[in-house]
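haha ok so turns out i had the wrong file open the whole time. this is the CORRECT one, sorry everyone. sequence first:
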Amino acid sequence: MSTESGPLSGIRIIEVGVMLAGPYATMMLADLGAEVIKVEPPGGEISRQVSDSYFASLNRGKRSICLDLASAQGKAKLGELVADSHALLVNMKPSVIRRLGLTYENLRRYNEKIVCVAMTGFGLNGGDDPAFDYVIQAATGVAAMTGDPDGPPTLPGYSSADNSTGLTAALGLLAMIVSGNGGQVDVSLRDVMLSQLNYRASAYLNDGAEPRRHPFGAHSYYVPAQLFPTADGYLALFITHDGFWKSFAGEAGIEGFGTMAERAARRDEVLGVVTAVLATDTAVGWESRLKPLAIPAAAVRTLPQALEATPEMLVTAGDFRLVGSPVHVDGYTPQYRPAPVFDEYVPVSDSPVSAPGA
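then structure:
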């Protein structure tokens, strides 16, 4: 594959996105070679007001066009773009999506094969209740099952619902393009987070087992699988089967607890022994000792430390250093163009975009 054109070269996507979930979805597609046209309202998309680095982290590689979609002229211009595009992705309230005509039902007159992806809080038919990331984490049980057992509900330190929904929407968009059929794709933050609770939800639905919090984020099934304090710092240790345990126990000088069932039944005893042993060395020390044994373990690092340890994931797009695409394709290197200047889009007559649905 050419290093100049990605696997999505020839695919044109219109984004009417705000803040994080929608723009993240289309940025992932732009990184893979799709042409993404970001439709912004007069004054610009709201995330431009957060910070330049925030906007750059979610919008690199796109082109910007200013359209007032509430006006006849804006709607007409959008129709022209739809006629020559493969997909349109929007993340707004359902009532706004319909009012602006950003559905397949309304846009199919311009292009029967257009794929319209609606990202909302609770679904296109789920109403307009506010649905920000933290609200969804609270509403779907994620916050309730996170944190110390004796402490308050806890939220992750990043926007897990928005990011997860962005990736899911990108998957649905590509699936429809591959099918060659136009249509409406409906993805909600609530449904995505419930889906990601897979084995937790299954345990309750089939066995009546409600999730309970364990200290240090311990796994509900595997023991030991959690954070542990050490002589300096914390270590994440994840023992999922007896082979891992045998190797770890040999290095740590622990006897007994040879089966997964026994370790689960004697959870407190196992954790007491492991905690005492891990306190004899630092987190980094244990990581270096366990890594050659292929035991899943890592010292807890800060974000700056994690970024310093992974220079291969850092890229430059314009004036900004960013984290690059997590999708690595043999023979293709993303260009990582900067985020667009507001309303910079100029139609190109000899555009390489292939006919929608081709």
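Confidence is low (pLDDT under 50) at residues 349-353.
again sry for the mixup
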